[in-house]
Amino acid sequence: MKNIIKTIVTIGIFSTYLFSQNVFERNCLVCHEHFPASLQRMFMSYLKVYSGEITTKAALKGYLQNPDKKLSVMSDLFIDRFGIKDKTDLTEKELEEAINIYWDLYNVRNKLR
Q1: What is the DSSP track for 9-77?
Q2: Which of 32, 46, 53, 59 is 20 to 30 A from 84 (CA-CA)?
Q3: Is 82 a domain residue?
Q4: Whole-angstrom Cα distance, residue 39 to residue 64?
Protein backbone atom coordinates (compact mmCIF):
# COMPACT_ATOMS: atom_id res chain seq x y z
CA MET A 1 0.00 0.00 0.00
CA LYS A 2 2.84 2.42 0.87
CA ASN A 3 4.52 1.68 -2.45
CA ILE A 4 1.32 2.45 -4.33
CA ILE A 5 0.98 5.80 -2.56
CA LYS A 6 4.66 6.62 -3.18
CA THR A 7 4.23 5.73 -6.84
CA ILE A 8 1.13 7.90 -7.19
CA VAL A 9 2.83 10.86 -5.50
CA THR A 10 5.94 10.43 -7.64
CA ILE A 11 3.87 10.27 -10.82
CA GLY A 12 1.93 13.34 -9.71
CA ILE A 13 5.07 15.36 -9.08
CA PHE A 14 6.68 14.17 -12.30
CA SER A 15 3.51 14.95 -14.28
CA THR A 16 3.37 18.42 -12.76
CA TYR A 17 6.96 18.97 -13.80
CA LEU A 18 6.44 17.71 -17.35
CA PHE A 19 3.19 19.49 -18.05
CA SER A 20 3.89 22.77 -16.29
CA GLN A 21 3.69 25.72 -18.56
CA ASN A 22 6.59 27.82 -17.33
CA VAL A 23 9.76 27.91 -15.26
CA PHE A 24 7.92 29.34 -12.23
CA GLU A 25 5.40 26.50 -12.15
CA ARG A 26 8.04 23.82 -12.73
CA ASN A 27 10.56 25.05 -10.20
CA CYS A 28 8.76 27.12 -7.56
CA LEU A 29 5.20 25.94 -7.14
CA VAL A 30 6.18 22.31 -6.72
CA CYS A 31 7.59 23.04 -3.24
CA HIS A 32 5.83 26.24 -2.25
CA GLU A 33 2.34 24.82 -2.65
CA HIS A 34 3.04 22.76 0.51
CA PHE A 35 3.98 25.70 2.75
CA PRO A 36 1.43 27.26 5.10
CA ALA A 37 2.57 30.76 4.07
CA SER A 38 1.31 31.41 0.57
CA LEU A 39 3.51 32.81 -2.16
CA GLN A 40 1.27 35.87 -2.15
CA ARG A 41 2.00 36.44 1.53
CA MET A 42 5.73 36.00 0.89
CA PHE A 43 5.45 38.45 -2.00
CA MET A 44 3.78 41.01 0.27
CA SER A 45 6.57 40.56 2.83
CA TYR A 46 9.19 41.27 0.15
CA LEU A 47 7.22 44.25 -1.12
CA LYS A 48 6.87 45.64 2.40
CA VAL A 49 10.63 45.47 2.95
CA TYR A 50 11.88 46.41 -0.53
CA SER A 51 8.89 48.47 -1.78
CA GLY A 52 9.59 48.69 -5.51
CA GLU A 53 9.81 46.31 -8.45
CA ILE A 54 13.53 46.69 -9.12
CA THR A 55 14.61 46.35 -5.48
CA THR A 56 12.20 43.49 -4.78
CA LYS A 57 13.33 41.52 -7.82
CA ALA A 58 16.99 42.15 -6.99
CA ALA A 59 16.45 41.01 -3.39
CA LEU A 60 14.65 37.85 -4.52
CA LYS A 61 17.37 37.06 -7.02
CA GLY A 62 20.13 37.65 -4.48
CA TYR A 63 18.41 35.49 -1.89
CA LEU A 64 17.69 32.64 -4.31
CA GLN A 65 21.28 32.62 -5.56
CA ASN A 66 22.77 32.78 -2.04
CA PRO A 67 20.13 31.88 0.57
CA ASP A 68 20.94 33.22 4.01
CA LYS A 69 18.81 33.73 7.11
CA LYS A 70 19.97 37.36 7.26
CA LEU A 71 18.56 37.99 3.78
CA SER A 72 15.22 36.29 4.33
CA VAL A 73 12.05 38.31 4.90
CA MET A 74 10.38 35.33 6.54
CA SER A 75 9.93 35.18 10.31
CA ASP A 76 12.39 33.35 12.53
CA LEU A 77 9.58 30.95 13.43
CA PHE A 78 9.05 30.08 9.75
CA ILE A 79 12.78 29.62 9.18
CA ASP A 80 13.18 27.50 12.31
CA ARG A 81 10.37 25.24 11.13
CA PHE A 82 11.14 25.01 7.41
CA GLY A 83 14.76 26.08 7.19
CA ILE A 84 16.55 28.07 4.54
CA LYS A 85 16.05 26.89 1.00
CA ASP A 86 18.86 25.42 -1.03
CA LYS A 87 20.70 27.58 -3.51
CA THR A 88 18.84 27.68 -6.82
CA ASP A 89 20.07 25.56 -9.68
CA LEU A 90 18.25 27.68 -12.24
CA THR A 91 20.28 29.51 -14.85
CA GLU A 92 20.42 33.30 -14.66
CA LYS A 93 17.86 33.55 -17.47
CA GLU A 94 15.50 30.99 -15.89
CA LEU A 95 15.74 32.68 -12.51
CA GLU A 96 14.94 36.10 -13.96
CA GLU A 97 12.01 34.61 -15.88
CA ALA A 98 10.65 32.92 -12.74
CA ILE A 99 10.97 36.14 -10.72
CA ASN A 100 9.24 38.13 -13.47
CA ILE A 101 6.37 35.63 -13.55
CA TYR A 102 6.14 35.75 -9.75
CA TRP A 103 6.07 39.56 -9.83
CA ASP A 104 3.38 39.67 -12.50
CA LEU A 105 1.27 37.06 -10.75
CA TYR A 106 1.18 38.68 -7.30
CA ASN A 107 1.72 42.39 -7.98
CA VAL A 108 -1.59 43.97 -6.96
CA ARG A 109 -0.63 47.35 -8.36
CA ASN A 110 -1.09 46.05 -11.91
CA LYS A 111 -4.53 44.75 -11.01
CA LEU A 112 -5.78 48.06 -9.59
CA ARG A 113 -5.62 49.95 -12.89
Answers
A1: HHHHHHHHHHH-SSHHIIIIIHHHTTSSS-HHHHHHHHHHHH-SHHHHHHHHHHHHHS--GGG--S-HH
A2: 53
A3: yes
A4: 14
* Model pLDDT, residue 64: 95
Task: Count structural domains, the chain.
Answer: 1
pLDDT in tens, 31-80: 777 776 788 888 999 999 998 999 999 999 999 999 999 999 999 998 99
The 10s digit of each residue's pLDDT in 17-38 is: 555 589 988 888 887 777 767 8
In a domain, 61, yes or no: yes
Whether residue 9 is contained in a domain is answered as: no
11 lies in some domain: no
Cβ count within 10 A of residue 82: 14
Rounded distance between C-alpha atoms, residue 52 and residue 37, angstroms: 22
Instruction: Tell me which of 81 and 34 has the higher pLDDT.
Output: 81
**Rg (Cα) of the chain, in Å, rounded?**
15
Distance CA 26, CA 47 (A): 24
